[in-house]
Write a structure and sequence with these properties.
Rossmann fold, seven-stranded mixed β-sheet
């Protein structure tokens, strides 16, 4: 099993002939991901790393039947690329780029909702189901196949915790990095729900940070519906009030968005709280 991606995932790379597209396409192929097509208007008939390039997603769908897309298109053209992919029938869309205009993000998410499309991002490092499929920037050496599902806003934090788990001999079912926000397609609650329903995932690790309320929404769902063990690490516990730090969503005002408020909600929901990646390992071992 796993969530979002597996061995049957067939990937199309939008913006494949750009610098990031070329680099990431090689990384995906090296991992074993089935990259079946790329799209760059005007470059049909060429190839990147042996992957055929098409002028449009529609042409690629007709020829090679992809079911997921990862986009490296510049932010100002991201909306057009996303709409094109969804109109062609792609059901999983990974938006790696930051800086997409907010109104464009809202248009993408509204259109996706009406068509049953899962959008990961924008600004996401992607998703990896170790041993099965990588769709994003996660360094392959940091992850190994197993039973722990990990969800994070931050790509870097998901890398760090994944490596810490792997070094401790604890494998992962899927590791998902959602992106920095402030507007997301897929949320922590969404991924926790998928992990809760995934028979391969036995323990859920929720990595959060200051700013926004998505961890609170996830905590509410955990309290209501999740019966699997949940371990949570919230970073930014010493962050000053009112100062924007890192991700666009990482800002706190009053008690809203503080690490303390999120930790309290998660603890009430039954999650085990860690204060470091090393302690995440300790808690998982106790639960196992």
């Amino acid at each position: 099993m796993a969530i979002l991606v597996d061995r049957d995932t067939r990937v199309i790379v939008q913006g494949i002939t750009g610098k990031s597209g070329i680099l990431q396409t090689k990384s995906l192929i090296d991992y074993g991901t089935a990259v079946v097509a790329g799209v760059t208007p005007g470059k049909a008939g060429t190839s990147v790393e042996g992957v055929p390039v098409f002028n449009s997603v529609e042409d690629a769908v007709k020829q090679v039947s992809p079911n997921a897309a990862i986009s490296f298109v510049p932010p100002l053209f991201a909306k057009d690329a996303a709409m094109e992919a969804m109109e062609a029938g792609i059901k999983l869309l990974v938006l790696t780029m930051e800086g997409i205009p907010k109104h464009d993000v809202l248009d993408i998410l509204s259109y996706a909702s009406g068509r049953g499309v899962r959008v990961l991002g924008p600004g996401t490092a992607g998703v990896i189901s170790p041993g099965k499929c990588k769709l994003g920037a996660h360094p392959a050496r940091m992850f190994t196949e197993g039973k722990v599902g990990v969800v994070s806003k931050s790509g870097a934090l998901s890398y760090e915790v994944g490596k810490t788990l792997t070094d401790a001999g604890i494998g992962q079912s899927t590791v998902v990095a959602l992106g920095g926000g402030p507007i997301w397609g897929t949320t922590q609650r969404d991924i926790v729900k998928l992990f809760n329903e995934d028979p391969e995932t036995e323990i859920i690790v929720l990595l959060g940070e200051i700013g926004g309320g998505t961890e609170i929404a996830a905590a509410e769902y955990i309290a209501e519906s999740v019966r699997k063990p949940v371990v949570s690490l919230i970073v930014g516990r010493a962050a000053p009030e009112g100062k924007s730090l890192g991700h666009a969503g990482a800002i706190i005002r009053g008690n809203k968005g503080t690490a303390a408020s999120k930790m309290e909600a998660l603890e009430k929901a039954g999650a085990s709280l860690a204060t470091s990646p090393a302690q995440v390992v300790e808690l998982i071992r106790k639960l196992g």
